[in-house]
Amino acid sequence: MHTHEAGALHAEAGQRRHPSWLRIPEDVNALYPGLWSATVMRGDDGALRVAGIDVRALAAEHGTPVYVLDELDFRSRARAFRDAFSGAFAAIDGGADVYYAGKAFLCTAVARWIAEEGLNLDVCSGGELAVALRAGFPVERIGLHGNNKSVAELSRAVDAGIGRIIVDSFDEISRLGSIAEERGVRVPVMLRTTVGVEAHTHEYIATAHEDQKFGFSIAGGAAAQAVRRILAEPSLELIGLHSHIGSQIYDTSGFEVAARRVLGLHAEIRDEHGVELAELDLGGGFGIAYTSQDDPQPAEDLAAGMAAIVQHECAGYGLAVPRISIEPGRAIAGPSTFTLYEVGTIKAVELDGGAVRRYVSVDGGMSDNIRTALYDADYSCTLASRRSEAEPVLARVVGKHCESGDIVVRDEFLPADVEPGDLIAVPGTGAYTRSMANTYNHVPRPPVVAVHAGESRVIVRRETEDDLLTLDVG
Ligand SMILES: Cc1ncc(COP(=O)(O)O)c(C=O)c1O
Ligand SMILES: N[C@@H](CCCC[NH3+])C(=O)O
Q1: Model ipTM value
Q2: Segments of 78-235 assigned E as strands
Q3: What are the backbone dihedrals phi and psi of residue 293, each rounded to the nearest 5 degrees, phi first?
Q4: Would residue 402 show up in a list of annotated catalytic residues for this protein?
C-alpha cells in the first residue's frame, strides 16, 4: 500500500496530474514486460544489465546520454519479420520481401546487419542511400522513396543500379523518365498511392488521408493517371503499387482498407491496360510498445493477418496474388534500444490539490529524442543504476534544453530517492530518436553503442563540440 503524495492524485479525479492509465507501480524497480529489449534485466545488485553488461559500466566507458542498442534484439526482430512474411505469403503465392525502413535508424553497421539478415532496405534520401552504399548493401535490394527527390538523388540511384524507385509525383515521372532515357536504362518503379485511410495515429505521421503531400490519390483519379503516364514512358518499368498509411499503428483495419483499395486499382490497371502488376508494397507503420498501455502484435500475427486480407481481396478481383513487400522501421529498431541518461538536478513542484511533481532533469533531452515534444509521444523509464526501496512518486523526466517543452518522459512513477548522479533508462528509443536528433543549444548528439554477448562497441560515435564548430566559417 503506497501512502504518498501521488496517492492524492488518484483520490481526486478532477485534480489528476497524470494520465488515468498510469498506475502507481507495485514495485517501482520492476521492468514492465514488452518495453525492454531481449537481454535487459535487473542484476542481483539492482542495476540494469543488457547483453550481460552493467549499465554503470556502459556509462563509465561511453558517457551519457548514450543510445544502447541490443544487437541480438534488433537482429531477431529483423529475422522475425523476414520469416513471418516470407512464410505467410509463400503459403499463398510468390512470397514477400521485407524492406527495413532506414529512416527509423540507419548507420553503416545497421545496414550491414540488415543485409546479413536477408532483408531489403528502404531509403528516402541521398544521405540514407549513401550510408547503404558505404555499407556495401546490395543495391538491387534497395528501394528509394521521397516526395521531392532531387535530380542528383535520382541520378545517383539510377547510376548505382537501384532495385526500385517509388515515384511520388507527376514531376518525378518526367524527371526520372529523362534521367533513365539519357542513360539508356529502364528503371523499375512503383507508384505511391494515397488510399484515403484516416489511420489512428498522430496527424503528423499519418500518410494516407487525401489532404497531405505524399502519393497519388486513388479516389481522385491521380493514381490511374500516373499509371498511364508511367506506362507511356519506355524508360520506366512499372512493377507495382505502393501504399503506406502511417506510422505507430496498432489497428490492422487500416491495412485492410488500404489493401482493398490498392488492389482495386491493381484490378483496374489489368482491365484498362491488360497488365497484371507483379508486386504490391503495403508499407510499414507497425506500432510498438512505449508504455504499459501499448500492446503491439507480433510479426507472425501481422503477417498472417495481412496474408489473409490480400488473399481474400485478390480472390475477389480475380487477381493472382502479387509479390508483397512491407517496410517496417520502428517495429525492428524501436524496441532494440534504450537511452541511458544521468540525472543532474531535481525540482519538486506543488500542484493544485497539494500533489507534487518531481522534475528530474537529465543530461540530454529534445536534441536526442524530439518525439515527446513533436508528437506528444508517451515514454516510460526506470531508475537504472540501482534498485530503490523508496516509495514511487510522480515524476517528469526533462532535458537540459532552453525550452519548457523539452520533455523526455511526461509522466512516470520513479522512486522518491532519485538523486543527481543516478542513471535513468528510457526504453523504446531505437526508432526516430537518433535519426531525428538535432544539436539544439549546441548540444552534441549522443553515440550509439551496440551491445552483444558481454561486449560493447560504438557504431555511431559521440558528436563533439569540435564537430559542431567545424561547420562555422570565419
Ligand atoms: C513510405 C514509408 N515506409 C515505411 C515507413 C516506416 O514506418 P514505421 O517505422 O512506422 O514502420 C515510413 C514511415 O512512416 C514511410 O513513410
Ligand atoms: N518520425 C515519426 C515516424 C514517421 C516516419 C516516416 N514516415 C515518428 O517518430 O513516429
Answers
A1: 0.98
A2: 96-101, 120-123, 142-144, 164-167, 187-194, 216-217
A3: -80, -15
A4: yes
322 and 347 co-located in one domain: no
3-state helix, strand, coil in the chain (%, to 5): 35, 25, 40
Of 304, 315, 260, 314, nearest to 91 by C-alpha is 304
47, 94: one domain: no
State how many domains the chain has.
2
Same domain, 44 and 191: no
Determine if the pTM surpasses 0.90: yes
Mutate which of 125, 244, 249 for ligand 1? The one with the most ligand atoms within 8 Å of its CB, which is: 244
Contact call for residues 82 and 331 (beta carbons, < 8 A): no
Radius of gyration of the chain (CA): 24
**What is the per-residue pLDDT across 260-272, written as a single tens digit (0 to 9) for each?**
999 999 999 999 9
Q: What is the DSSP letter of 332?
A: H
pLDDT per position as a tens digit, 50-99: 999 999 999 999 999 999 999 999 999 999 999 999 999 988 877 999 99
Centroid of ligand 2 to alpha carbon of 203 (angstroms): 11
Q: Which long-range contacts (CB under 8 A, 24 or more apart) does 133-136 make?
A: 133/160, 134/108, 135/108, 135/109, 135/111, 136/112
Closest ligand 1 atom, CA of 329?
9
Q: State the ligand closest to the CA atom of 246.
A: 1
Question: Do 96 and 322 contact (CB within 8 A), yes or no?
Answer: no
